[in-house]
Amino acid sequence: MASSLTKDTVRPGTPGSGKTFFGHPRGLATLFMTEMWERFSYYGMRALLPLYLVAPGGLHLSAATATAIYSVYLSLVYLLALPGGWFADRVLGPRRTVAVAGAIIMLGHLTLALPNAGTFYAGLGLVAIGSGLLKANISTMVGHLYDGPDDPRRDGGFTLFYIGINLGAFAAPLIIGTIGENVNWHLGFALAALGMGLGLTQFLLGGRHLSARSDIVPTPLSAQEKAATLRKAAFWAAVAIVFYAVVGVSGVYTLNWLLVPITVAGLVIPVLVIARMKRDKELDRAEQSKLTAYVWFFVAAAVFWMIYDQGGSTLSLFAESSAKNSVLGWDFPVSWYQSVNPVLIMALAPLFAWAWLALARRGKEPSTATKFAMGLVLVGASFFLFLAPLAIAEGGHKAAALWLAAIYFVQTVGELTLSPVGLSVTTKMAPAKYASQMMGVWFLAVTAGDATTGLLSIAGVDLNKTGIVALEAVLAVLAGAAVWMYRKKVKELMGDVH
């Protein structure tokens, strides 16, 4: 990460010339603060969500239903990142899309803050839509601040931006979680709205420091395309309204009528997107080979996120019912567990970056496939570790908080071996034709993983039982072993990508 003084200057004519933010364009400060507050609102609400869903003072649902809703919500956020990128590319441009996204997210959190069960799901939907629009575009705007991929400040800028994400994620459960659990659930959701409001204000006030490229619509829709898109959108919206009106009037509507279609879409759409790319005859042999290799990474990532994202649902609900949430006699809210991962990320990420560089200098850095295998084995190991507190709880005792902290630690180490590498290899292996879409494809791996968890929960599977936890752990370890065994084949398929 760049650490030069803020008074340093950059080359004349580059974005953000003049005063800088730790040696980076001033626009990075705007995007840093916007993303920090947006992540504050997102992770704060997310920490409260499963707890509110099962609480007697909340919606008082079963743990399985709460896990299904949580998983479907996460699945939807990452699924909508794909159309979010398309919307910026074809309609509004990144900057205006992010501004609209911030307003939608804030409105969603305000809707969640209303003490009405009927509006709660509408609020979740708004937050998911806004998050999908924002997630796909704010990172693109960070890239716009630099002179292309060869700008020496670029990696440091993204590192600073990543710190902003984790600062927001760390603080959110401590503040929003405490207020939501100990004072009032809806006041907690209102605080999430305030956080997004602060981020949106920062974005609008600091917009003059952003690159002019962020205002450009790269491939705007023609008048005919706009008309056709609006007709299709109106048709499918009308179909959905009529369908759910009929289901509602007939008296057979349950929450599964909403959850199941979204879950199925979360599994089917990733398959269709990759299959469409594989069938594209315009791609040459080398690009097709890289796509085949990428399928290995995609499936591995889906298995990883299926288990990893249960840290906010399965583990959180276990902590609420079966853990001794105290350290040295000091009790703390269950939502605070969600701050463990971001603080560990901030502590361990520099160590991992240093370790990979040190190994690379000696010619011993593990391959991408090996790193993926390590991530899968570690996330599987975290669920093998989960078996211990499950056994303690089944014996009629409360499990110590350190058991859960240890599980989050192992998962975080696994994340650091897989997630940054996955982002990098996605950009490197993308066919030229799909360069701007491939990051959305990477997010679809999260969608597929969370959709699988949602489907299991909808089917009534109790994910806090020893048998299913052990089965998931074995699946992850076997998947890691398979990636490692076929690492040489995958490396061959990757061609010139290292």
From TrEMBL:
Topological category with respect to the lipid bilayer: Multi-pass membrane protein
Subcellular location: Cell membrane; Membrane
Positions of transmembrane segments: 43-62, 68-88, 97-114, 120-138, 159-179, 185-205, 233-252, 258-275, 291-308, 340-360, 372-393, 399-418, 439-461, 467-486
Location (main, coarse): membrane
Region span, Disordered: 1-21
Pfam families: PTR2 (PF00854)
Keywords, in A-Z order: Cell membrane, Membrane, Transmembrane, Transmembrane helix, Transport
Family assignment from sequence similarity: Belongs to the major facilitator superfamily. Proton-dependent oligopeptide transporter (POT/PTR) (TC 2.A.17) family.
Protein name per its UniProtKB record: POT family proton-dependent oligopeptide transporter
